[in-house]
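User: I'm putting together a small comparison set for a docking exercise, and I want a reference complex before I start. The sequence is below, and the ligand is phosphoric acid mono(formamide)ester. Could you produce the 3D structure with the ligand included, as structure tokens?
Assistant: Of course. I'll restate your input first, then give the structure tokens for the complex.
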Amino acid sequence: HSHLLGIEPLTPSDITAILDLADQYVELNRRDVKHSNVLAGLTQVNMFFENSTRTQASFELAGKRLGADVMNMAMQASSIKKGETLIDTAMTLNAMHPDLLVVRHPHSGAVDLLAQKVNCAVLNAGDGRHEHPTQALLDALTIRRAKGRLHRLSIAICGDIAHSRVARSNIMLLGKMENRIRLIGPPTLMPSEIGAFGVEVYDDMAEGLNDVDVVMMLRLQKERMDGGFIPSEREYYHRYGLDALKLNHAKNDAIVMHPGPMNRGVEIDGEIADDINRSVIQEQVEMGVAVRMAAMELLARNRRAKSPEVMA
Ligand code: CP
């Protein structure tokens, strides 16, 4: 692959290759071996048109740990604010010969469009409600390490599915790896194309969580509910917020996940989020750095193989 735009084009063996390499980086990161020259001489530009804590920080750390020159574009201070289009901005950067472009954008499909216009490898750091591939990969690595496998698991994805690129990428990845996927949430927050996903749908947490191995919570994404129905936080927490009582329906060793940023007391009880025996939320963040290191290394290797004179 020349880019990482989504999970959709990846095969199960592509996914396994990224996770296997990421596993090696987890061990190196833990042993404080945080520098290599895998991306030495390459320039990585991060363009975030939407807020980010985890994704931007981990892409930056991942690039630096692999020896790339990393530049974070301050999009609030960029010429986008003067009316320049996304494509003109991208073409301008392209003329400076970056090797890796990491892009987050509020519009679904914007990152794919940009990838068609530039010469470098593009990594999607989240586009609208479309895809967030590195999030799904880091979630997959977290699950694989916690459960010892990434197939034949019962996985519940809960909450605001309709507005979630995290859910879309996870449904695709976990489906490709042959897991049983349940979506739990209010019918108003289920996507219209749900029939195409091959998943089970529930609007009752107790029923949907029955005997699952993995409970993946999602943030209520009010910023994407433009003009639509916004549930009250109290009512939402009562029906769909993960608390100890609801979690009791899952398997005894079920893990609890959340991609962050998390709204405590809205979609998840703070005590559950902090329970180190159940919650793997901090592991997810740790896996994020390793997965992004692996994804960038594989793309750089692929580009070197295609044009060795350019990326010697
Ligand atoms: N999970 C995630 O994408 O978090 P950020 O928005 O902080 O990057």
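Residues 52-55, 126, 135, 259-261 surround phosphoric acid mono(formamide)ester (CB under 6 Å). The longest strand covers residues 121-127.
User: Thanks, that's exactly what I needed.
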